[in-house]
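cron nightly-structures :: item 1 of 1
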Amino acid sequence: MRQNSDCPPLSALSIFLILLLAAPCALGQSVAAGDATATLDAAVQQLADRVAGIPNLRGPVRVRYFQEAGFATETGKDWQDMFREELEKLRVNVTEDAGANLLRVGLAETPTEVVLSAGVRLNDREEVRIVTLARAAFAIPNVPVSPIRVDQQMVYQSGDRILDAAFPTDDAGPGLVILANRAAGLSVLRVDGAGKIRQAVSLAGTGARVSRDNDGELQLHANDVGVVFAGKACRMAWTAPDASCHAAKSARRAATALKARCGDGTWKLLADGSDWFAPELLQVVPEGSARKGSAALLSNFPGPILSVSPGGEPNEDSALVVTRNLRTGNYEVYKITLACGN
């Protein structure tokens, strides 16, 4: 589990104000409202360029993002991906190493402006760079209004670390299949509709282990269960639960796609889980949408989203989301359904 010594996240606007008021070396730049390039993308590029130009910024940086949840409805998170890509183009190495310099990047809005700020402490000096964009010039196209909403229901929780969850594929009734890292090691659990564990199969004897960057994925088949890790795949049957494992190339699960019963479209569920210490928004985006920022539907979770798995037949309109509740410390599984009606 990651350890963190950083201060608790503040709102993006608070971060901006703290940096602006506390740092005499703050440098700002505005993107003119009448400029054809006056877009969030242009502002992100300018901020990355100004960060890359900070004197004495040597070695890799660890980036933490701060953004007000309400404003995320308009922007999504693709600006964060773009900022990282721009930094790397400018030869600024971005890492997850906790020992690297911490670069705090905030996106906030005021009644008249959109404000992007970045701050890093170097040699007991706070270096801050700010780019502002006229609020009237900022717009992301909205998708057509849809009579679809996201319903979420917590269906299971545990103090054990949950890596993945799936709906069972046999006829054993309602319930879940859970991949968990328990005190005795990795286990595949069969949970009934009331959340009670009915069967547990240990993978400890297979040598399979999990670390922060080595999460497992369930792959359920008609008669058995597969578990895929980085470099290893295991398979077991409920009736003969001795798992067999072999070396295998791992591939990241593609974005989960769901169908709503009241429409013909397909919706993608997007989450990055990159910040283990902040609540996350699940973005539900129409298939073919050019930008994640044009997400029509958003759903809040009490912590980072660790996995999203599709329901499959007959649950094509549902998915399972695993998160860690930052308040309680428990791992929780939510059933997400695309329901009809506002």
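cron nightly-structures :: done
The chain has three domains: 12-137, 163-247, 254-340.
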